[in-house]
């Protein structure tokens, strides 16, 4: 022997520099276990991610609905702010004129604003400013119980 280590592979002896390379069964099993654990963890987070995405989408559509109502309320007369309520909107925030096929039902009501610390401000400003209460009911089907969100908007009259 000239100092070279020999390894027994079946019926033949090979020097160390000619050793076959590869993964053992234990190494492959451990690698598969790690990959499986990671895949199951990611799949477990998928439903949570979908719920969060759906909630974010609903908030975005509701903000678009409020913006649409705010734009219309600025040019409308105070007496006509709640006329035609309830309003219907589809799942993209576009107004539709029938309850059938709508995803959101919006009810409007106006109240006189309350000003803390002042007793006569409400009488002086009631002709110029009104609180618009916006009730948005999100409903995916007509039979389902809807989720209600309330928004408040202060609308100035600008001399109308």
Describe the structure.
This protein is an alpha+beta fold and 160 residues long. The protein has one domain. 35% of the residues lie in helices and 26% in strands. The chain contains 2 helices and 7 strands; from the N terminus they run ββαβββαββ. The protein has helices at 25-75, 121-125, and strands at 6-9, 12-15, 87-89, 95-96, 104-111, 129-138, 147-156. The strands form 2 sheets. Strands 4-3-5-6-7 form a 5-stranded antiparallel beta sheet, covered by helices on one side. Strands 1-2 form a two-stranded antiparallel sheet. The protein is elongated and about 105 Å long. The N and C termini lie far apart (109 Å). The mean pLDDT is 80.
Supply database-style keywords.
alpha+beta, two-stranded antiparallel sheet, 7 strands, 26% strand, elongated
SSE blueprint and pairings:
Layout: E1 6-9, E2 12-15, H1 25-75, E3 87-89, E4 95-96, E5 104-111, H2 121-125, E6 129-138, E7 147-156
Antiparallel strand pairs: 1-2, 3-4, 3-5, 5-6, 6-7
Strand percentage lies at: 25-35%
**Could you estimate the helical fraction of the residues in percent?**
25-40%
Arithmetic mean of pLDDT: 80
How many helices in DSSP terms?
2
State the end-to-end distance: 109 Å
């Amino acid at each position: 022997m000239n100092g070279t280590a020999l390894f027994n592979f079946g019926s033949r002896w090979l020097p160390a520099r000619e050793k076959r390379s590869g993964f053992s069964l234990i190494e492959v099993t451990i690698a598969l276990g790690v990959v499986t654990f990671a895949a199951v963890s990611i799949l477990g987070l998928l439903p949570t991610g979908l719920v969060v995405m759906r909630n974010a989408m609903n908030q975005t559509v509701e903000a678009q609905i409020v913006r649409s109502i705010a734009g219309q309320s600025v040019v409308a007369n105070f007496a006509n702010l709640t006329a035609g309520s309830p309003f219907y909107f589809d799942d993209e925030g576009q107004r539709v004129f029938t309850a059938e096929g709508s995803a959101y039902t919006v009810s409007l009501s106006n109240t006189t604003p309350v000003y803390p610390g002042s007793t006569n401000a409400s009488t002086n400003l009631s002709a110029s400013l009104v609180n618009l209460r916006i009730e948005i009911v999100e409903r995916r089907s007509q039979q389902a119980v809807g989720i209600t969100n309330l928004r408040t908007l202060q609308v100035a009259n600008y001399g109308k």
